[in-house]
Amino acid sequence: MTRFRYQALNTSGDLLTGEIDAESRRQVFGELEKLGHMPIEATELKDGAGGGTGGLLSRLISSKPSREEITEITRDLAMLLKGGVSLHEALQLLSQMGGKPPLRNLMAALQRDIAQGKSFAEALGVHTDVFPPTYVKMVEVAESAGTLEATLDKIAQERTRSEALRRRVTSSLTYPLFLVVAACGVFLFVMLQVIPEFERALSGFMDKMDPQAKMIFALSRFVQANIDMILGIVAVLLVGGLLLSRSRAFVGLLIRTLARLPGTRRIVQFQQTVFFCSTLGTLLASGVDITTSLRLVRDLFRDPRAAEKVDQLIAEVRQGHRVSDALAKLNLLPAYVIPILRVGEEAGELDTMAVRIGGFYEDRLDRALARLTSILGPSILILVSLMIAWLIVTVITALISVNELLV
């Protein structure tokens, strides 16, 4: 993504400025329009704060509040508002609390914007790198309805649930990745330290070795001679993976690939269902209209093809079709979800039904992740054991054959 500096007018005619990460200038304008602002200009930042590798490095080392800190401060703000504290005083208190400097500075900036006459949603909209469009839109609707404290509490609960799910997904992949890294480390150790000792002991009998032993010794010599190149390639792959993870097209390709694999197909489907239904239900329950809610959900999809399906869904809804009827044609969610959403629409409780579906599939996602981890862990251990056993057995067999020749 590229960093842009933008200028826009809010609904009161005030000039807003700020920075945002986006794929293009057109996307910047789209994000501003979704927040109710009129875009004026979006300039790509070319220096260290902008795009490219330098911009990536700058963003990696830049200090801004984490997702967890924003969730916690949202919960604190809701609690203060429920206690009768005004928004201006609540932001002032939070800016003086003993949190990290980036968080205190953010609260102080929001307080200054409120003091200048901006609405809370407009103040949040300046910091698009911290507060996503769904957050800002829910606050905007809540300010109009006079339910800001309840909405902030709901936002905090939804973010907490989402972060817990993200941690479960991450932790389920950590153990298999650790095993892969450990396997690579053991392989390098054997190639660099163990096999050379056997090769020196058998150096006079190389012509009598079987082909497998010769191949192992040749592989060991190759690793020893090119260890710097191998480590360099690993470093390049890691950096390249980090850069590609910020590419929407690459992430979409990765998601589609995982969706075709037998072991991960259901996990991708469950995660997409949880994401779509939970976010849609939360937005609708906060008073956001159906079209805007779908548009906000669409922009959160990291798979461009799934986002295109949501675009088709939005077009169908604008033409007067039901959400459930439009979803039935798109193959975006499991078939089981469609009739349940239809019942919710007919009862006027689409938001409640969508949240329930999200919770149901979140449980199924947890079970699928646990099942995948229970299969991957032992499978990787078995493969690593077989690889090391093959290396050692081949070398020991060669050593025994040499002893027999000497006898």
TrEMBL record:
Localisation per UniProt entry: Cell inner membrane
Source organism, top-level taxon: Bacteria
The Type II secretion system protein GspF domain, residue ranges: 74-196, 276-397
A Gene Ontology term for the protein's cellular component: plasma membrane
Topological category with respect to the lipid bilayer: Multi-pass membrane protein
Protein's GO biological process: protein secretion by the type II secretion system
Chief location category: membrane
Statement: the UniProt record of this protein carries the keyword Transmembrane helix: yes
Keywords tagged on the record: Cell inner membrane, Cell membrane, Membrane, Transmembrane, Transmembrane helix
Segments traversing the membrane: 175-195, 215-244, 380-402
InterPro entries reported in the protein's UniProt record: GspF/PilC, T2SS_GspF_dom, T2SS_GspF_sf
Pfam family, one: T2SSF
UniProt keyword annotation of Lyase present: no
Record family assignment: Belongs to the GSP F family.
Protein name: Type II secretion system F family protein
